[in-house]
Structures are given as C-alpha cells and as structure tokens.
Design brief:
The complex is a heterodimer.
Chain A lengths: L5 H11 L6 E7 L10 H13 L6 E7 L4 H6 L7 E5 L3 E7 L5 H15 L6 H8 L5 E7 L3
Parallel strand pairs in A: 1-2
Antiparallel strand pairs in A: 1-3, 3-4
Chain B lengths: L1 H8 L3 E7 L4 H6 L7 E4 L3 E4 L4 H12 L2
Antiparallel strand pairs in B: 2-3
The chains are: A alpha+beta, B alpha+beta.
Chain lengths: 146, 65
C-alpha cells in the first residue's frame, strides 16, 4: 500500500523531471529487530517511494543504521532519527529530521531539485554576504506537519 | 527551504528542518510554540517565516554580536 496517492505520485514524478543531476537521500534509521523509532519505517518507505518516481533513477536512497553504522553517522553528523541528508555533487549540510510530511514534504521536493542543479538560487547580495562567513553557523527550523 | 539554500552557499553553514512533534524535548528546549521557529547557533530565535535578507542579517548578527 503506497504512502503517496496517485495524485501526489503524479506531482512528485512531475517535479522530479526538473532534476539536473543525481541526488541521493542518505537516510538514518533504526533497523531490523531493534525498536525502530516511531516514524523511521514510514520515513524510509516514503523516501524509497519518492526515489522510485525519479527519472532514470536520478534520485537514489542510501540507508544507514543510526547505531550500528557509526562511521556514516559521524560523517553526516546526524544526532537524531529519522534523518535524511540531501546530497548532490557534495554534502551541503542539508538535513531533515522527522518524517517529511506536510510542509516538510514540499521543502524536500524543492531541495532535491535545487541540489540537483548545484545552484542555490539565492541573490548575489546574499551570496556575497555568506561568502564572508568563516565560523560555523547551524540553523534549525522547527516545523509541524500541517 | 531558504536555510537549506544558504547551506549550499557555504561550507560553514549547516541547516536542519526538524519536525517538532517527533522531538518534543527539543521543541521544549527551544520553546517552540508557533512554527516555523528558526534557531541559529543555539542563541538567536526567530518566530515565523523569515525572508532571505532577514535570515542573512541574523546569521551575521550571531557571528558578530
């Protein structure tokens, strides 16, 4: 039983046509016989469903176990699950924590296409201001599924 | 999402979108009542949707208070 209905599947397929290059969704979950976190299995099913709708397999999913796969957890600096890193030509530090439903879902779709283009689409003024940053900036945006 | 786009522009910037109801301890920690709520480096909190210019200014502010 797919998570996405026919209408949403068509919209996702349409949106992903705009992908300019490969993107992988690196997902962290708690697998197999361990107590999978409440939304982990559903999040995994969702990202796999989305990836299956991409043209020529341009969007792929890589799944890691948060506890067992310490190397990957450290590499992607993930501290809670379910987690999704949207990775294109490089890992830009883009993360989703929690199941991407509602507003998060459209953000995920938007990010996939943007990352595939390796172009942020921000203004020249913003890019110039950001270029001067030389210390870590960690932004967290808290949302709810509406 | 704007914060994710900013993360693309700098090796120093990382951005998380966090579903608050799944992480209630964090929602409490950052006093998330209305969403979206943006937290920068644990120190600056912004309520509501933030335009590009404002988020950039806040980022710079957090680094040079």
């Amino acid at each position: 039983m797919p998570l996405l209905n026919d209408k949403i599947q068509a919209e996702v397929r349409q949106a992903l046509q705009n992908m300019a290059g490969p993107v992988k969704l690196v997902m962290f979950t708690q697998a197999s016989n361990a107590l999978e976190c409440e939304m982990c299995s559903e999040t995994r099913a969702l990202v796999e469903e989305i990836a299956a709708l991409s043209p020529a397999g341009r969007l792929t999913v890589e799944v890691h176990d948060f506890l067992d796969d310490k190397a990957a957890t450290e590499q992607y600096k993930v501290d809670k699950i379910p987690a999704i890193a949207v990775v294109g030509a490089q890992d830009y530090g883009i993360r989703f924590y929690g199941i991407p439903s509602g507003y998060e879902f459209s953000s995920l779709m938007d990010d996939i296409v943007t990352v595939s283009k390796a172009e942020s689409g921000l203004s020249a003024a913003t890019k110039a201001a950001v270029a001067k940053i030389n210390r870590p900036v960690h932004i967290q945006v808290y949302v709810t599924p509406t | 999402m704007l914060a994710h786009r900013l993360a693309m522009e700098s090796e120093w910037i990382t951005a998380d979108m966090v579903e608050a109801t799944e992480f209630p301890h964090l929602a409490n920690k950052y006093e998330v009542y209305g969403v979206p709520r943006t937290v920068i480096n644990e120190t600056i909190h912004i309520e509501g949707a933030v335009p590009e210019q404002v988020l950039v200014n806040k980022m710079i502010e957090v680094l040079d208070p």
